[in-house]
Amino acid sequence: MTKTCLECNEPVVGRSDKKFCSDYCRNSFNNRVNKDAKNLIRNINNRLRKNWRILEVLNPKEKTKVSRSKLIEKGFNFSYFTSIYITKAGAVYYFVYNQGYLSLENDYYALVKRKT
Questions:
Q1: In whole angstroms, what is the distance from residue 39 CA to residue 31 CA?
Q2: Residue 89 — φ and ψ, nearest 5°?
């Protein structure tokens, strides 16, 4: 019984567990199958990267205060962050990698940089 390539349906020659006729077909098949998941991950990583850059630009001295409107004006999206840190006093810091922000009164945010 001759096996056929999962990508191009050409005959597969070689090991009994071989599924593809070439590396090209193997890569094409896997890229097609994983396309949606890769796009989702890529889009989320791009959003996190943009948020991080905005915080980095607005917080050059590792600690500052900025308005919500300034963050939004720069394109910051509050839905994307990598971790949450809750202090003993109950303050909630949201972090995008090492750059964090804390909601203050009157639509202001404290920006901080976590020391690594």
A1: 11
A2: -80, -5
Among candidate residues 3, 2, 6, the one with its CA nearest the CA of residue 28: 6
d(CA 103, CA 90): 12
What the block records as the tokens of 99 is 């750059």
57 φψ region: left (φ > 0), alpha (ψ -120 to 50), beta (else): alpha
Residues 6+ apart with CB under 8 A from 92: 84, 85, 86, 102, 103
Helix 23-33 vs helix 35-58: crossing angle, to nearest 10: 70
Taking the whole predicted model, whether its pTM rises above 0.85 is answered as no
E-assigned strand segments in the chain? 63-67, 83-86, 92-96, 99-103, 108-113
Residue spans of the domains in the chain: they are 37-113
CA-derived radius of gyration, the chain: 24
Summarised one tens digit per residue, pLDDT across range 23-63 is 999 999 998 888 877 888 889 999 999 999 999 999 999 89
